UniProtKB/TrEMBL annotation:
EC id: 5.1.1.1
Active site: K33 (proton acceptor), Y253 (proton acceptor)
Reported function: Catalyzes the interconversion of L-alanine and D-alanine. May also act on other amino acids.
Top class in the EC scheme: isomerase
GO molecular function, a single term: alanine racemase activity
Residue ranges annotated for the Alanine racemase C-terminal domain, each copy included: 232-355
Alphabetized InterPro entries for the sequence: Ala_racemase, Ala_racemase/Decarboxylase_C, Ala_racemase_C, Ala_racemase_N, Ala_racemase_pyridoxalP-BS, PLP-binding_barrel
Modified residues (N6-(pyridoxal phosphate)lysine): K33
Protein name, per record: Alanine racemase
Family indicated by similarity: Belongs to the alanine racemase family.
Keyword Isomerase on entry: yes
Record keywords: Isomerase, Pyridoxal phosphate
Length: 355
């Protein structure tokens, strides 16, 4: 068996969910879109099914996967529907949906509603990606309300810069949201993970934690609010080859790295086809039998090479942590100019082990 293993510690997922909800107060939808950020949506959803208030996914396809697995809690479609035909499925499966623009609103107002819809009406409070402008929000709200097709409207918005401590943009978004929703009844939902972690004003009726559930922080490394999260995925592999090189020898494709000293090179099973970012080549951190080292040379499709020179006891069979309890996925991502979110979502081909 190829030794690349993504251990998914579901107890950590559960711990992080309960922590997120406690920090937020009120209720929290566990965001399990994109196959639970690469961790396995059904398994993660099941791990909190007895405690969660519901889930959020990107689209109908993701929601149906959870329903097919027997998940019966509320599920919110964060992007809403893409075509009117999806509304029949929304009805059949009792899904909640975001309405974020005129087109989606028109589809809903024209659709049959044997049962009432539960709508999360999204405002563009400053991110300028999706949602009704503040000036148009109350009109959309009233149209929905007067349609007789909804049983409740949750007022929501999404933050562009909540992960930047000290940045005033989030306070400005909150102020815009509050001003434009004044007098409109119903519950509210503002906070993603970073909102929950560092913006007390963003904690309303419903939190929408995502990345923090997987134990990765959206905040800069070392930020005090990062404590308490537990990495859910531990990605490990093994060394399956070793060679000794002299000084000035090239390693890997493109000879992008040359040895600067006599070097023991370890070969391990993991590459960019597994989701390890190719741009995180020489310098990216790894942990070999518990000792910190680094990637040397380019990451290739199925394999990569690491520096064993200072770990003489390591050799064929040694365990390598690519990220997890010790190596932060955010650090690996930073070496590739990316973020932990993207790196986690990309993991594939590894053997997934649920613990
Ligand atoms: C993905 C998403 C979230 C979760 O964001 P994190 O930063 O992962 O916590 C919350 N709300 C919406 C609308 C989203 O699309």
């Amino acid at each position: 068996m190829r030794p690349l293993i993504a251990s998914i510690r579901l107890a950590h997922f559960r711990h992080n969910y309960l922590l997120a909800r406690q920090q937020h107060g009120g209720r929290a939808l566990a965001v399990v879109k994109a196959n639970a950020y690469g961790h396995g949506a059904v398994r993660c959803a099941q791990a909190v099914a007895d405690v969660a208030d519901g889930y959020a996914v990107a689209c109908l396809e993701e929601a149906l996967q959870l329903r097919a697995a027997g998940i019966s809690l509320p599920i919110l479609l964060l992007e809403g529907v893409f075509e009117a035909a999806e509304l029949a499925e929304v009805q059949a499966h009792g899904l909640w949906l975001v309405v974020q623009n005129r087109e989606q609103l028109a589809m809903l107002l024209a659709a049959p509603a044997a049962k009432p819809y539960r709508v999360w009406l999204k405002m563009d409070s400053g991110m300028h990606r999706a949602g009704f402008f503040p000036a148009d929000y109350a009109t959309a709200y009233r149209e929905l309300q007067e349609s007789g097709k909804v049983d409740a409207i949750v007022k929501m918005t999404h933050f562009a810069r909540a992960d930047e401590p000290g940045c005033p943009a989030t306070d400005a978004q909150i102020a815009a949201f509050d001003a434009a929703t004044a007098g409109l009844g119903g519950e509210t939902s503002l906070a993603n993970s970073a909102g929950i972690m560092i913006h007390a004003d963003a904690r309303r009726d419903w939190g929408r934690p995502g990345i923090m559930l997987y134990g990765a922080t959206p905040l800069p490394a070392g930020h005090a609010a990062n404590v308490g999260l537990k990495a859910v995925m531990q990605l490990t592999t093994r060394i399956f080859g070793v060679r000794e090189l002299g000084v000035g020898e090239p390693v890997g494709y493109g000879a992008s790295f040359h040895t600067e000293r006599p070097t023991r090179v370890g070969l391990m099973a993991c590459g960019y086809a597994d989701g390890y970012p190719r741009l995180a080549s020489t310098g990216s951190p790894v942990l070999i039998d518990g000792i910190a080292s680094r990637v040397i040379g380019r990451v290739s499709m199925d394999m990569m090479t690491v520096d064993l020179t200072d770990i003489p006891q390591a050799g064929v069979g040694s365990t390598v942590e690519l990220w997890g309890d010790t190596i932060s996925v955010n650090d690996v991502a930073a070496h590739a100019g990316s973020i932990g979110y993207e790196v986690l979502c990309n993991v594939k081909r590894a053997h997934f082990r649920y613990e």
